[in-house]
Amino acid sequence: MNDGFSPVLKKSKPDDFHLITLIAQSRQDAINELYERYNRLVFSVAFAIVGDRSVAEEITLDVFVQVWQRAASYRPELAKVSTWLIAITRHHAIDILRWQRSRPEASSVNWEDISPQDGPLLHNLEEQIEGTLNKEQVRKAVAQLPEEQREALALAYFKGYTQSQISAALKQPLGTIKTRIRLAMQKLRKLLVEDLDGS
Amino acid sequence: MMEEMHVLESLPAYALGSLDAAEAQVIAQHLAGCHICRSELNAFQEVAGQLALTAPQAEPSHNLKPRLMERIQSLSPSRSRTEPWRFAGPGLSVGAIVGLVLIATLAVSNLLLWQRFNQLEVLAGPLGMRAIAVQNTDAAPNASGFVVISADGQNGVLVVDELPALDAQHEYQLWLVRNGNNTSAAVFSVDGSGYRGMRIEAPHTLLVYSSVRVTIEPTGGSAYPTGEQVLIGSLFNP
Question: What is the CATH class of B2-54?
Answer without folding.
Answer: mainly alpha
